[in-house]
Amino acid sequence: MRLLPLLQCPPLPLLHRCCLSTLLANGGAASCRRLSTDGPAPQPVIGQDSVEVLGRSHPRDDFTNVTPRILASVGRNLHNQSHHPLWLIKERIKAHFYSSYIGRWGNPLFSVHDNLSPVVTVEQNFDSLLIPPGHPSRKRGDNYYLNRKTMLRAHTSAHQRELVSSGLDAFLLAGDVYRRDEIDASHYPVFHQMEGVRLFSNHELFSKVQHGDDLSLFEAGGRRSPQKQETHSLEAVKLLDFNLKHTLTRLVTHLFGQDLEVRWVDCYFPFTHPSFEMEVRFQGDWMEVLGCGVMEQELLNSAGAGNKAGWAFGLGLERLAMVLYGIPDIRLFWSQDERFLTQFRVEDVQQPVCFQPLSKYPPLLNDISFWLPETKEDEDGADGFTENDFYELVRSIGGDLVEKVSLVDQFTHPKTGRRSQCYSIIYRHMERTLTQQEVKLIHEQIERSAETELGVQGRY
Fold first, then answer.
1. Which of 174, 208, 334, 361 is deepest in the core (most CB within 10 A)?
2. Minimal CA–CA distance to 362: which of 416, 412, 403, 307?
3. Number of helices and strands (H, E) in the chain?
4. What's the pLDDT at 229?
């Protein structure tokens, strides 16, 4: 089972041609350094003994699995590029929180942090969020490690504890995150997340409640139940739950329209309890758009905010942009084609945009079959062969020319017990027609590299 972190995974497949907004209208730590905004970021380099990224060198070891192609995306910061669709979504969310939640001195209640370095420690990415050492989400097969202690963040929640430790009670956080994953129109190894955190003191939470002075965030000797953590009072959790869901309902109706149907589904995250996923009704089906919950008190205690309780939510910016703007393929977010980019150069971030598809160029399909190496997972969780290893190899060689990779057949030899797999690879350029000759060169390189790097035996 993969961890579904608080900030949600990449978008679901898109099954429509028109944007949702139109349809609805008609109906502290060193790793928390800010990235430099003065000129281009230093070029990343993977050397024999070290990995250099964002101007810092990190020693290589047996856990290093980051690739040049992935490192080339570090520093692109699509969510900060003016009038990029991800920037538009981020700015719409930011504007909503700025206008809807005002502090006692008339300033916005929520601060915004969208330029934190994606290079984090493993402790930040997992331990600070109470994700246990043996959790499957820590595997090399699911993450990009610079070494055993440093990685590209798998979720922006990696910065939660340090921002709370710095004294922040209400903040929004946006950034690029990195995960090894399958290849299709809705999955990409780099995507973008945005989350919010809100903490309350005893007085803040109960100030508008009758006899609020008699109520408390915490209780001694409590027991953990599906409704609450052991340290929280039931009254506090009910108010936190109400405030969280009211805040998020206001946000999604601001983004999607007032007639939106919303429902809440109980779920599990290691760093919130109780936890929920919000689903919205779209084209007759329920679609998950974000995850949220009451923050684990242990996390707040470790961040020096043990006298407060709070909630957190997280969402995927690509998922919202694909639905709201009708963008059919996640690779388009990385396109520098002016036919794509000019569609989002609007005067007002609130202005509806309905993406007009570019020309659809023909796909080229090639299969690859091979016998798997006879290796097993070791004690450290380092895998022998995993599907993500093959997806990563294909992505590294074929890049954005690869539209989709599907496992289409598996076979176990009845006598030897050897296993083989067959994958179908769809190649399609977003901006021109590919030739079979250029695809053949890429496909043959994938075949050779699969044998030398993954230890498979080809059946070509």
1. 174
2. 403
3. 12, 16
4. 97
Residues ≥6 apart with Cβ < 8 Å to 249 = 262
Relative to beta strand 309-316, strand 190-200 is antiparallel
Answer yes or no: are the C-beta atoms of 426 and 402 closer than 8 Å. Answer: yes
User: Does the pLDDT at position 26 exceed 80?
Assistant: no
pLDDT at 403: 96
> Tokens 């409590």 identify what position?
222
The DSSP H or E segment spanning 239 is: helix 234-256
Q: Coil, strand or helix: which one is 288? A: strand
% of the chain exceeding 90 in pLDDT: 78
Radius of gyration (Cα) for the chain, nearest Å? 23
Tokens representing 385 are 């062969």
Contact 105, 341 (CB under 8 A): no
* φ, ψ of residue 252 in degrees (nearest 5): -70, -30
**Secondary structure E strands in 119-162:** 119-121, 150-152
Q: In this predicted model, what pLDDT tens digit does every residue of 242-273 receive, in sequence order?
A: 999 999 999 999 998 888 899 999 999 999 99
Report how far apart, in Å, the C-alpha atoms of 178 and of each of 43, 196, 237 are. Answer: 18, 19, 33
Q: Is 247 exposed, middle or buried (0-12, 13-18, 19+ CB in 10 A)?
A: middle
- What is the spatial distance between Cα 275 and Cα 3, in angstroms, rounded to a whole number? 14
Decide: helix, strand or coil at residue 340: helix
Q: What is the pLDDT of residues 335-370, one digit of tens each?
A: 999 999 999 999 999 999 999 998 889 999 999 999
Q: Which residues contact 221 (CB under 8 A, 6 or more apart)?
A: none
Q: What is the pLDDT of residues 30-42, one digit of tens each?
A: 344 444 444 555 6
Q: Are 430 and 359 in contact (CB under 8 A)?
A: no
For residues 200 and 308, give the distance between their C-alpha atoms in angstroms, rounded to a whole number.
Answer: 5
**Which H/E stretch holds residue 301?**
helix 297-302
Question: What's the CA gap between 416 and 27, in Å, rounded?
Answer: 61
Q: What is the C-alpha to C-alpha distance for residues 425 and 406, in angstroms, rounded to an integer?
A: 7
One-letter amino acid at 360 equals K
